[in-house]
Amino acid sequence: ARHEASYRANAHAAYNNHVAQSGPTATTEAQLLDSLLTAPASGAISVKAEELGSFRAISSGDPIERPLFAATDQPDAIARNLIDQSVVARVDNFGGANGSAAGVGSLTLSTLQAVQAVAINDATRYSSNVRASDLGQPETIALNQLTGVIAADLVNSSLNVTGDVQVETATRVDTDDMQRRLDLDARSEFGPTPGRAIALNVVGWTISGSLFSDDLLDYDEFQSGMSTSLVARAQVDETALQADGDLSVTADNEARINATTTSIGREGEILPAISAATAGLTLASNRLRMDTLATIDGTDTAGLAVNAGGNVTVRAGNSAAVNA
Hints:
A hairpin with a 4-residue loop joins β15 and β16. The chain has two helices and 27 strands. Strands 3, 4, 7, 11, 12, 18, 19, 23 and 24 form a nine-stranded parallel β-sheet that branches. Strands 1-5-9-14-21-26 form a six-stranded parallel β-sheet, with no helix packed on it. The chain is mainly beta.
């Protein structure tokens, strides 16, 4: 099962508050369930689920022309991707006839979560005939929120495999055919007036409030709205397994998560940090609750055996690149 949809949301306004938002909720699943293999098979069994969606939310404003000294309140602007997506590959209750083990040549069970989300908030450009002291305080917020489960599960089954067994979960693939990784990028600009500019990536949390800055900065708001951790899991559980080759159970998180705020001048130029003193608040932050697990477990069923003629590898790795 592979999901490759692209989503794009744009909001564009000069005077009104504007929100560009994509908010998909979905599950990509590949499953082999409650099945019997009545005769040994020499070929391979492969169960794979891949999430390759792309999400882009862009909020921007037009130049504002006002008479000199005329006060004006600037619009608030939000660009956000609220993504709740699970990726699951599962083999459950798979065996042979009359309670025997299913005989197969090899087994590959894998999940890939490589969603790419970009939230960009372009600061409203102010014309030169408006003084900064006469402008209201806008909020510019760029937010990516990701929840869900990434799981490769081999459970409640009985298998004899003449080759290798691979159970793997990953957030990055780098092959000749594909180069992708889980990638969240939040970018927020603030203009030459005092205001709030926030770039935020939230993984494994949900926010119950309005998602304006008072909610984003309130720890109690996160506590009241938090979900369980986003879990990247590979497991063999309650399964009798004989593999003549190698047995590998791996979970690897190599996500890239970046949050950036940038000070923009009246003409749209990027200002150095020393020139950004007019910002009321600027925050680039990442808040993560993400577990990476790889397990082989048979403690609930007496007499289960897991054997391999080759190497046995159980590995969980978290080498995510997180930057603010």
